[in-house]
Amino acid sequence: MDSRQLFGIGVTSAGISFTSSHPTVSSIPTRLLGSLKFDFGNSPNSPFSSHFDSDTLTALSDGQEQHSSTENLSGVSPSCNSSLESSSYFYRPRPSLDCHQDSQELHSGGACFIQDANCSPNIKHVLLDIETALMGPDDGEEVTTREISIPETPVQRSRSWSQEPQGGFAQGNLKELLTACAKALSDNRMDDFDKLTEKARDAVSITGEPIQRLGAYMVEGLVARKEASGTNIYHALKCREPEGKDLLSYMHILYEICPYLKFGYMAANGAIADACKNEDRIHIIDFQIAMGTQWMTLLQALAARPGGAPHVRITGIDDPVYKYARGDGLEAVGRRLAAISAKFNIPVEFHGVPEFAPDITRDMLNVRPGEALAVNFPLQLHHTPDESVDVNNPRDELLRMIKSLSPKVVTLVEQESNTNTTPFFHRFVETLEYYLAMFESIDVTLPRNSKERINVEQHCLARDIVNIIACEGKERVERHELFGKWKSRLTMAGFRQYPLSTYVNSVIKSLLRCYSEHYNLVEKDGAMLLGWKNRNLISASAWQ
């Protein structure tokens, strides 16, 4: 089986129907903000304040249109079907969907948030084939977005601040004001920091421009860092995640409006399909199994091989703390894979390992002779500490252990950002640039007063931002590295790069045309990098 078979297989002919009402991760993520009832910074404008409680919020405006996650949130007619897997790479837990056994029907409403009409009928068909099997709800139930009211934001906040102490930034430039806040904190100029932060809070808005929305979360991260409360807040947020069905809705919206999540799975699955095309027994070790939906299209493609389906064994590793994100334990993943096995007549064996990645040992993985081994790291490896946190360097140690297993292929998808060992101020600037590009990409699809957009940014992205800015040491788990650093680590562990499929590359480029002309895909040093405008955001590579 080659890449063309993987990305060209027809799912609808198998009698599956779907509903696009929810999502996976990761994923993105991998980190969500819950119903927040504690005070954050004692500011009425804080996006984390008690006023932003999902049970007591008031509407943005009396006339604001209400949406569910199954509607076309962009307000435009969908021009392209694009769901591969509702997953987030931007937070560690990925919600999972249990698969109803026997004759379960997966449903698809075909919701699409893409505004570009450049998708040809052929690419639409290919993308639909890739995506369809991944969108079904568990137990035949549709998951809809809970109706949530949003606190009213001032119609027009003043952004005409004056020159600040030692700031040196132009009037009206919020990006420079945020940077000045971070510099004052870095230099321990607390009086200046307090004054600058007060002005920044008057300028940010969760319904404003991308920089205003991002600024709302970055200001709170700065305040948390000053008060040394980042760790407590991070843990509090982790304990107050949304209900499972709400989380799935938020992640599905993010999945639909941005191509980042599709890109990661498509690149990884393409490399695994190519490396294992002639194998009769395949063992996949997934270091972030979530609900296991990454493997649905791959299993279907393997089942359709002309020479017959191989035996597939999947070892799924998932952080035991995040069981709530799936709504069930790893047993639910096993049931879902069993249903797919029966549906497409492919032997699938599943073994769940509820452990943190650094704690995984060779014995837990039960590698057997005669199996082609594929190891998958979907935006997860950056959570494993390195030498800057632990003298034992668990990150490199894990890679060396995987190398000792002699895998056929290892797939790595990571955020293209440098926040691991970078000093605080430079890390703040890097985070500002990285997430501003992401917030801008969201801005082209969902209206600024959309409750769905607010939920996506709050629940799927904001907690990562707080962790990067406010936490240090072992409490800072968001430790991204650029591809060049990952390449160095993997090379030192004994790996060499495995070439990515040119066909998969072409399919991804066609996918991007369904979104915005500002997305781009570049090939660099054997990896594929997906970006927004001039900023690379996600890297995908394969190794052996």
Query: How many separate helices?
Result: 18
Helix content: 25-40%
Biggest sheet details: 9 strands, mixed
CATH topology name of the domain at 258-420 and 477-543:
Rossmann fold
Architecture per CATH nomenclature, i.e. the level-2 architecture of the domain at 258-420 and 477-543: 3-Layer(aba) Sandwich
Cα-atom Rg, whole angstroms? 22 Å
Distance between the termini: 19 Å
Which sequence of SSEs, written as H and E, runs from N to C?
HHHHHHHHEHEHHEHEHEHHHHEHEEE
Q: Spans with pLDDT under 50 lasting ≥5 residues?
A: 9-44, 49-118, 123-171
Please provide the count of β strands. 9
Give the class-level CATH name of the domain at 258-420 and 477-543: Alpha Beta
Average pLDDT, all residues: 74
β content, as a range?
A: 5-15%
Structural class: alpha/beta
Shape: globular
CATH superfamily of the domain at 258-420 and 477-543: Vaccinia Virus protein VP39
